[in-house]
Amino acid sequence: LSKRNNLIVFLLVFGFLTACQEKRKREAFYYPVDSLLSAQIDLLSDGHALLNKEASINGKTESTQYAPKDSSAWASELDIFFELDAINKPINKGSYQVQRNLNDVNSNLSVLQFTCTEDLPVASLKVFYLKELNQIKKLEAVYKEANSLYGTTGELSLEFQDAYNKPRLISYSIVGDQKMMLDDSVSISIRGTIQYPN
């Protein structure tokens, strides 16, 4: 990718990852996104997982493969997904319609769905699971952010597979668009697939 495109990718990722470095600990009113991700980061780090990452901006693609060195590196890779825990902020209690035990039309999975009734960054969150909620197979969300410099809308996804009777992250994706002030809209796609040595 060109230097200009690299800068745009940085700005897009920065936009998606607006994020705070403070410890994210709060009661999970709706769904414990923070706890789920923290447990996965421990598994990824302890398992010395390998990441295959493909990033695309307006159709131009770059691929990398590497092993993030520790839990901090994995937390950085998955940082945008921690933003989904905003549904659990006390101020957002009552801002989501909750639908339980929905049937996924594309599989034999059940769905727990949260739909925002206000204009909040996490517009929706879906948790796909097998029989019990702790048997999670997939998490999907729509995340949006806007300020005076740019507007961003993204579809986020995490996929899991059972390993030793626990869910283990096997892939993630971020697909979205960003409209920057005085510039054209830019499309971004990030896909990560994870391999475990054992």
What does this structure look like?
This protein is an alpha+beta fold and 198 residues long. It is 20% helix and 45% strand. It has a nine-stranded antiparallel beta sheet with strand order 2-1-9-8-7-6-5-4-3, with helices on one face.
Describe this structure in a few short sentences.
This protein has 198 residues and is α+β, with helices and mostly antiparallel strands. Helices cover 20% and strands 45% of the residues. It is globular, with a radius of gyration of 17 Å.
SSE inventory with pairings:
Blueprint: H1 3-16, H2 33-46, E1 50-57, E2 60-66, H3 71-77, H4 79-82, E3 96-103, E4 110-116, E5 122-129, E6 136-146, E7 150-163, E8 166-180, E9 185-195
Antiparallel strand pairs: 1-2, 1-9, 3-4, 4-5, 5-6, 6-7, 7-8, 8-9
What is the overall shape?
globular
Proportion of helical residues: 10-25%
Report strand %: 35-45%
Helix run count: 4
Structural class: alpha+beta
Distance between the termini: 34 Å
Number of strands: 9
Average of per-residue pLDDT values: 88
How large is the radius of gyration? 17 Å
Secondary-structure element order, as H and E?
HHEEHHEEEEEEE
Side-by-side strand order of the widest sheet: 2-1-9-8-7-6-5-4-3
Unreliable spans are 17-24
- Major sheet description: 9 strands, antiparallel
